[in-house]
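Format notes (please read before filing issues)

Several people have asked whether sequences and structure tokens are stored in separate files. They are not. Every record keeps both together, in the order shown below: the sequence lines, then the token lines. Line labels are part of the format and must not be stripped during preprocessing.
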Amino acid sequence: MLATVTVGVFALVLTFTPGPRALQQRAWSAPVQTVYAVLITAVFVGWRPLLLGDGASVAEGLLGVGGFGLLVLTYMLVAGRSIGES
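Then the structure lines:
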């Protein structure tokens, strides 16, 4: 279900972007890459116990799920901000 929603959101957002050039320029900017790195690290730290076969605490579970949600939101915002650019 989560994969379906994620793919649907990406498809919807990418439908309205002007083209790959504007999206690529915004996505490869230094601040956006820093946010991506921080969020991917948060997702990994949150999912690490589950990947190792241990039980995750509530805080680690929230960190993994919240980090993933923020990562998807960041991708959507970057794509949305590039709509007016060419």
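For reference, the curators noted about this record: The radius of gyration is 15 Å. The chain has a mean pLDDT of 76.
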